[in-house]
Amino acid sequence: MTNLSALLQPDRGQPARTIHVVHPDTWQDWLKGQPPRVRATVAAHKLTGKAGNRAVLPGEAADDWSMLLVCDEAETSPFRIASLGEQLPEGVYRLASGEPGAAMLGWVLAQYRFDRYRKDGAAQGPRVLLTGEPGRIDETLRLAEATFKVRDLVNTPAADMGPADLEAEVEAIGKANGATVTVTRGDALEQGYPMIHAVGMAAARGREPRLIELEWGDPSHPCLALVGKGVCFDTGGLDIKPSAGMRLMKKDMGGAAHALALAAVVMAQRLPVRLHLLVAAVENSVAGNAFRPGDVLRTRKGLTVENTNTDAEGRLILGDALTKAVEGKPDLILDFATLTGAARVALGPDLPALFANDDALAAAMLDAGDGAKDPLWRLPLWDGYDEMLKSDIADMVNSPDGPFAGPITAALFLRRFVPKEIAWAHLDLFAWRPAAKPGRPKGGDAMGLRAVWAMLKKRYGA
Question: Are residues 310 and 412 in the same domain?
């Protein structure tokens, strides 16, 4: 993969190709100010100033050229020039007027390639964007690195991204930042985190379930707990999925990928918090010792759960992880999970569902999402549906009967493991792009990550 630090450079007047970004409303004025050779090229390409129009414009010398893009996106959009970051040949570029600003991020994200399993095709050299705002480069690259990390982890097939591989990823970011990493597995996991153990106990040797924890920061700072669902592959268990439903289940650890990548940003940017990252890493497999529909599961909190659906396993492992997070007396808990298909039916692939037990926290996250052009959509923790979790033989069920309010009842299940006095938000996200957009290729992707980071910066002061 291209060295990301090479993709954004301070503008010191070095030679560079020019990019003209023209809004449709200013198209005629811009065209009138161009030399005849440019107007002739525009006419030859039959450009009308419609958003999406583009052309290579000739310069005065034979080998001199610049790029034209007609774009109606706001200057605050990260993806304003992302299509050029992907399509232009390698080289150095600057905008003809203004600064790239937020668009630096999309420029970098457009140059992502997942080529771990490809032998053919030489990688294209970097497309470098110059900026007169060098102070924005570092954070932009950190967010790009985090996004690339999510994409890489989610795109990697389950055979190469099991619980042990997630553990190795946490170990790597811990070592790079001087953090402490602790892993609980085996008998200790069974006794201390019985739901994580139950979900993952049918996995093959070498892919055993575990709870991975990373701790970093000044103990005097407020504690921030990041919790990620790390189901490295989900067969559905004994309530087995059809093959079509299993096809993308390598992405069921997308929540863990988000939590891990965000933790790396928090540490790299030295956010003044005491970070506690928790990744519940399992594979929900089918075997003779798999947990069964109807089993009553113990939990770390002491509650009992009647397992009504082995394919509703994510909330089980998160329940134990959230309980451990609460024990650290955090100021804030954020959990990330590819939790329910029903959230995708309701909101589609682009919008993560946001649940929060604190209205001020929810408002801050929504505002941050709007500002970062990384939208979230709040759904309610509707108390009236809490009775759907009632069990005849245990404290609750993990999955109610019937098709109604799936994302909400899943969030209500998680809420039972978080005391009211601790601010908590839950993101039910897809972590996958079913179709490519500029700067956002088809495949694994980060969703809500920039929004959460913007909220954290404002909450704790970067």
Answer: yes
